[in-house]
UniProtKB/TrEMBL annotation:
UniProt superkingdom: Bacteria
Protein name, entry field: Nucleoside triphosphate pyrophosphohydrolase
EC number(s) reported in the record: 3.6.1.9
Lineage per the UniProt record: Bacteria, Pseudomonadati, Pseudomonadota, Alphaproteobacteria, Rhodobacterales
Organism: Paroceanicella profunda
Keywords, comma-separated and alphabetical: Hydrolase
Length: 288
């Protein structure tokens, strides 16, 4: 483990206040937050499990900033995500497992190892297909070096990934060894089959299982169509939120609210907002 030598308090304070100090400043801020002598009580109470949900949340906020196109927000969210890495590394250093420098060394070694066509004596031109094959071969060799269950094409797909994302990754892994439908039409047929089975399910357990099957096949359809199901769902969530807030605003202008309105009244506002959005898109396309 490559641990850092603690700084004298005056040197630490100088570093913390130096806005140009970069990563070393962030590492020192995190060390100070976790310092039993004068650190933050909340930060001192945290452990890997309690911080993990924040790490996942920050990754989603990075994706949201990318989707919005707001580069200033992306800069801020990438900083928050970097802080999560520093946070975990600081806790690991405290227990003597590893330090931030070990995290950096490990990922650098991995990138060099997995890109022999770029780095080292084997560097040279490779097609994207050849590079992907090399990447998978190297990853398989890395997995084989770890004690685990019997080797599988599905090894290395994290169980903590969001469900739709993990479904696509599992399907991609299976497809690489030939276990896949030949095109999207077969997936659409399977969706019809799974929807029928869901409609016929007569117990709560069966309905949950059949609903899961349908979601899994929907993720597979997205994969065949080149659509990221998580990204598509995020966009439709944003669209629903935008339109529903519009309905609320229109009702408020009438001195009403959703709770005081009928479904037909809310649907009428929804349809009007939808039509306005469609017209605005058409006008923007005409200008382009």
């Amino acid at each position: 483990m490559t641990a850092r030598t603690p700084l004298a308090r005056s040197d630490s304070e100088t570093l913390v206040q130096d806005r140009e100090a970069g990563l070393e400043r962030l590492l020192e801020i995190m060390r100070r937050l976790r310092d039993p002598d004068g650190g933050c009580p909340w930060d001192l109470e945290q452990d890997f499990r309690s911080i993990a949900p924040y790490t996942v949340e920050e990754a989603y906020e990075v994706a949201e900033a990318i989707e919005s196109g707001d580069r200033a927000e992306l800069c801020s969210e990438l900083g928050d995500l970097l802080l999560q890495t520093v946070y975990h590394a600081q806790m690991a250093e405290e227990e003597g497992a590893f330090a931030f420098a070990d995290v950096v060394r490990a990922v650098c070694d991995k990138m060099v190892r997995r890109h022999p066509h770029v780095f080292g004596a084997a560097a040279g031109h490779r097609t994207p297909e050849e590079q992907t094959a090399d990447w998978e071969r190297i990853k398989a060799a890395e997995r084989g070096a770890k004690p685990a269950r019997a080797p599988s094409a599905l090894d290395g797909v994290a169980v903590t990934l969001p469900g739709l994302t993990r479904a696509v990754k599992l399907q991609n892994r299976a497809a690489r060894v030939g276990f896949d439908w030949p095109d999207a039409s077969h997936v659409l047929d399977k969706i019809v089959e799974e929807a029928r089975e869901l409609a016929e399910a007569d117990t709560a357990a069966d309905r949950e299982e059949e609903y899961g099957d349908l979601m899994f096949v929907m993720a597979n359809l997205g994969r065949h169509l080149g659509i990221d199901p998580e990204a598509a769902l995020r966009r439709v969530n944003a669209k629903f939120e935008r339109r529903f807030r519009g309905v609320e605003a229109r009702l408020a202008a009438e001195g009403s609210s959703p709770a005081q309105s009928t479904l037909a009244e809310m649907d009428a506002h929804w349809d009007a907002i939808k039509a306005e959005e469609k017209a605005a898109r058409a006008a923007a396309e005409d200008r382009a």
